[in-house]
Design a protein that fits this description.
By secondary structure, the chain is α+β, with helices and mostly antiparallel strands. About 30% of the residues lie in helices and about 10% in strands. It is built from two helices and two strands. The chain has a two-stranded antiparallel sheet with strand order 1-2. The termini are far apart. The site of one zinc ion has 7 residues, from loops.
């Protein structure tokens, strides 16, 4: 968290906002907002997320965290829908 300068590390597009008004990085800091520490990949299981080295963790404000999670979930759903044209094949191994 100190490495992040107590500032949300969402930089341009992680949450769907480019943060163009604040130099392509979210300008929310721990002074005014509650920051969450989480890996950039928000879809990791809690166990996998716990194994991510500290230097790869990002500080998120709750707003960016919520939006980025929604974005990643939507992208993940879309990916699965496209790579899964034939569910029946699963039982055919
Ligand atoms: Zn933020
Ligand atoms: Zn953001």
């Amino acid at each position: 968290m100190e490495a992040a300068g107590f500032q949300c590390q969402c930089a341009g597009g992680l949450c769907g906002s480019q943060h163009a008004k604040s130099g392509l990085r979210c300008d929310r800091t721990a002074t005014n907002h509650r920051l969450i520490v989480a890996p950039a990949d928000l879809l990791l299981t809690p166990a996998a997320a716990a194994a991510v080295p500290a230097e790869q963790l990002l500080a998120w404000c709750s707003d960016c965290h919520k939006k980025a999670l929604a974005q990643q979930r939507a992208a993940d759903r879309e990916r699965r829908r496209q790579s899964d044209p034939e569910p029946a094949a699963l039982f055919d191994l």
